[in-house]
Write a structure and sequence with these properties.
The protein is α+β, with helices and mostly antiparallel strands. It is built from seven helices and eight strands.
């Protein structure tokens, strides 16, 4: 039986399992996204928190491991809009990340996004767009291959899930699904979403691409934004 110890992990989701255990979705440094059972925790009352970096130990093979130990290394306290944003990035990871494929670069982006959400002095939308872009690049949208210097600021571009980035078709408009102006695309790719217009275009584009990978299934955390009408949306 394989044992892994001392690796970094984040809890993406937790739910009751059998009489006293938890079924966890973890984002780990060793194996990327993975499932694990934490036994007896509901009796003892101590469970690994969301939005915190953990050092974990597990044993077993296959898709479901047994978590045998964890220690919290540090985390962020999120409330209100920022807590909903935390649930949103977790839900996207659970829904879209492949299992048991180490993704160290994405793990770093996830940790950085949590840090940004925990800083009340930082705007939420740039952090969310940065996270969504990293996830889409991992899934293979071709955005990571765009040469920013080749983009013409006023030209309209179309991002297709199958063919990547190209000039928009004649019938496309700035509000068409999966279209974006060159200057807004450059701002997205260089992490400089400083204007409301660029943020609106980037949000529309990334949401459309994510919805393609979700096969039309709703993101539950988005419904929390709709109910509460917060000042930022995913």
């Amino acid at each position: 039986m394989t044992t892994v110890s001392g690796t970094i992990a984040f809890v993406l989701h937790a739910r009751p399992y059998r009489e006293s255990s938890l079924l966890l979705e973890l984002l780990t440094a060793a194996e990327g996204r993975m499932g694990a059972v934490l036994r007896g925790v509901r009796d003892r009352g101590r469970r690994p928190p969301l939005f915190a970096s953990l050092e974990v130990t597990w044993r077993g093979r296959g898709e479901l491991r047994t978590l045998t130990g964890w220690e919290e290394l540090g985390g962020v306290s999120l409330s209100g809009n920022r807590a909903v944003c935390g649930l949103y990035i977790n839900e996207l990871a659970v829904r879209l990340l492949p299992r048991q494929i180490p993704q160290p670069e994405f793990l770093a982006v996830y940790a950085g996004t949590l840090s940004a959400l925990g800083d009340p002095g930082l705007a939420l939308e740039p952090a969310l767009r940065r996270y969504e872009l990293a996830l889409l690049n991992l899934l293979g949208e071709g955005l990571e291959f765009v040469v920013v210097e080749d983009l013409e600021p006023r030209r309209l571009y179309r991002v297709d899930p199958l063919s990547g980035v190209r000039e928009a078709d004649p019938h496309d408009t700035p509000s068409s699904p999966r279209t974006i102006q060159g200057e807004a695309l450059a701002a997205l790719l260089t992490d400089r979403l400083d204007t409301p217009a660029h943020r609106i275009q980037a949000k529309r584009l990334l949401r459309g691409l994510l919805d393609h990978h979700l096969d039309g299934k709703p993101i539950l955390s988005r419904q929390l934004f709709a109910r509460g009408r917060p000042d930022v949306s995913s």
